[in-house]
Design brief:
AhpC/TSA, Glutaredoxin, antioxidant, redox-active center, four-stranded antiparallel beta sheet, elongated, 2 domains, Peroxiredoxin, five-stranded mixed beta sheet, Peroxiredoxin_C
Amino acid sequence: MTLRLGDEAPNFQAETSEGSIDFHQYLGTSWGILFSHPKDYTPVCTTELGYVAKIKPEFEKRNVKVLALSVDPVDSHKGWISDINETQKTTVNYPIIADSDKKVSNLYDMIHPNASETTTVRSVFVIGPDKKVKLTLTYPASTGRNFDELLRVIDSLQLTSVYSVATPANWKDGEDTIIVPSVSDEDAKKKFPKGFRTVKPYLRYTPQPNK
């Protein structure tokens, strides 16, 4: 199954390192990030899970719940978590799905046979409170993900879901945004009381509206 932006994120029930969950119930009214790992006790995954644990407060500030996935069973996850805590000097503080039957992996198209027939690629799904897919990323197993970039993307997604703006290349929270072309200059004067500057009729910058 190929998931595209705007599709509903499929619901599922699963065992995790923190007990049984229903995915949609777990998310509730929060945003969510679901990210997969090829298998337990692998070096790149160990650094990723440890880093996410360290920055979990940043996800919480953004009302984002974190959920990881690996195709190994719960007992394996718990042993691996001990290693992660030891080597990364942190405490894993979010659930890791045990997907030994690959039900969730297949539901979310996390197994790419030309890369590996048995393990998941490094997939990322950001899901909104409406349970719709807002972002997908796919990394090869050999490349660790940039979770600071994912925080930046979530800042943009949350901002642009409320205001009629888009974010330019390399934008960071607090920087100027771009007024979407569908908003006329007349409406822009009402919507953006901080004003805006026009570079081209289709390129108008305004200070970040929620700052």
